[in-house]
Amino acid sequence: MIVIWVRHGEYEFEEDGGLTKEGKKEIERTAKQLRVRLLHKRNILILSSPKKRAVQSAEIIFKELSKTRKSIAMKIDERLDVDGDGIWVDDIEKEFSEAKIVILVTHLPIIEDCYGGYLPKGGWAVEEI
What we know:
The chain has 129 residues and is α/β, with parallel strands linked by helices. The protein has four helices and five strands.
């Protein structure tokens, strides 16, 4: 299984602000990079934080990946919320074993805690398990 961590794009600084124009561009670039990287991959699941900026980012990625494949799904997962408990690779493997690739669209604190690294807005990293 491959897990791809994606940090949402730049967003409007309000309670649950959506992506800015620049944030949409950041995620569109990421989505195109992922489409090329995952060109011949199947059984892709996108999990997103429920925050507006993450959902918008996940939707952009979903739309781009859907251009070249049908075996793709998207779900909201509360554990990926900025105030959530996070999601661990062991949990992903157990709960989503049918997926070959899981794309997690979330926030920096969750990425730092669960992945253990820093990603810029719109950035992504791959973890093979």
